[in-house]
Amino acid sequence: MEVLRVEELAAVHLELAGESDSGRSATTLYTRPGARLRQTLIALDAGQTLGEHQSPGDASLMCLQGDVVLRAGDAEVELRAGDLVAVPPQRHDVHARTASVLLLSVALH
Q: From CA 41, how far away is CA 9, in angstroms rounded?
């Protein structure tokens, strides 16, 4: 079994996000052929937004570090370290108020 050091990966990807023109960095933590789950670590520099995009299906977003806002239509929710939310089934975006690290978990059908 492989143990991932998420805090270490978060630090690396926050640094990469800060150096990137896009202000973000991501890596897939878990998937495999035939898997029904994919988990992705996403780091966003302060002030960056993952532009509006379609929902990936059944998914959750957990804030590991920082402060982000998830917006879908007229609704929005603020997430801070330790908060978890189901990703809404409609188009949405994510805005980082501070340098942030997220864990996106997606059920693959």
A: 8
